[in-house]
């Protein structure tokens, strides 16, 4: 190639197959006999091409000759509007899409109750009438010492809730028993070393983090609440390691006030299986349930569903065949019919 015509050929890039050693694809140049000026002229524009404008003008001129008065002007305006619409469509196609989807806030105000929910609730009560689940004898409200002062009872109820997160009731109850034998008061727990406190609560889930939460929260109780616990959900949630579920349950067990539904993994899972909620997190489930469930049932639903989840509606291999709601529970119907992925249930002959 000579120096005079070096701009007559420009290279385009074509990628070949990947090499054996995993290097970048080889670049194979191809020629495209176009000067930079011609390439610039070929650059797409948002406006209409000259041919389209000429054809449009011919149509409008014909319309003027064939029509008369307002009809002619109306057709001209329609053609002009069509051109604008076409340009607008092109601009919208070329506009970049947002990198992130706008967050949609979920609201549950004035939600209609699920179908046959009262029948489902009655069946749940029937299946739980013996009160023989672990939560009935070793739940967070069964871990405190009734013989101590009221503020100490409230403190022990709070600690049992903090320990119960991601932990079975049997393990929580045993850990609280060791704490009570050690001396489960605000002053004594704060004076206990982190190592000793960890030995007392082990093997609860995330025990190392809970040692820090218990120590920090206990210090706050002494400094701000005169060795008692907060009496509102908002103040309880400000304590390290305390969330909405613990706060609402603590308000019920420690203060005798029903401020909301305590939703743990059992309540969250079962509510979605029954069709009582369609949510992704326990906090969303709480809001969904509180939007339609009568307030007088709020204090019952946590204890009812937790025991039901421990005995029948387990996370894996739920006993849908023995559940009284298997014909009206959306999940139970699909599970028994083998419509769920990974379902191994087989109907009896």
Automatic annotation (TrEMBL):
Query: SMART domains given for it?
Result: ENDO3c
- Output the Gene3D superfamilies linked to this UniProt entry: Helix-hairpin-Helix base-excision DNA repair enzymes (C-terminal), Hypothetical protein, domain 2
Could you say which EC number(s) this protein's record lists?
Answer: 3.2.2.-, 4.2.99.18
Q: Which GO terms describe its cellular component?
A: mitochondrion; nucleus
- Give the catalysed reaction(s), semicolon-separated: 2'-deoxyribonucleotide-(2'-deoxyribose 5'-phosphate)-2'-deoxyribonucleotide-DNA = a 3'-end 2'-deoxyribonucleotide-(2,3-dehydro-2,3-deoxyribose 5'-phosphate)-DNA + a 5'-end 5'-phospho-2'-deoxyribonucleoside-DNA + H(+)
Q: Which Pfam families does the protein's record reference?
A: HHH (PF00633), HhH-GPD (PF00730)
Domain HhH-GPD spans what residues? 163-311
Write out the annotated subcellular location. Nucleus; Mitochondrion
Q: Specify residue ranges for compositional bias: Basic and acidic residues.
A: 81-94
Picking any one GO molecular function of the record gives: 4 iron, 4 sulfur cluster binding
- Region feature (Disordered): 79-101
Where along the sequence do coiled-coil regions lie?
A: none
Q: CDD domains of this UniProt entry?
A: ENDO3c
Keywords in alphabetical order: 4Fe-4S, DNA damage, DNA repair, Glycosidase, Hydrolase, Iron, Iron-sulfur, Lyase, Metal-binding, Mitochondrion, Nucleus, Transit peptide
Among the record's GO biological process terms, what is one?
base-excision repair, AP site formation
Instruction: Summarize the protein's role.
Output: Bifunctional DNA N-glycosylase with associated apurinic/apyrimidinic (AP) lyase function that catalyzes the first step in base excision repair (BER), the primary repair pathway for the repair of oxidative DNA damage. The DNA N-glycosylase activity releases the damaged DNA base from DNA by cleaving the N-glycosidic bond, leaving an AP site. The AP lyase activity cleaves the phosphodiester bond 3' to the AP site by a beta-elimination. Primarily recognizes and repairs oxidative base damage of pyrimidines.
Q: Give the family, as the similarity comment puts it.
A: Belongs to the Nth/MutY family.
Please give the name of this protein. Endonuclease III homolog
Q: What organism is this sequence from?
A: Phaedon cochleariae
Gene transcribed to yield this protein: NTH1
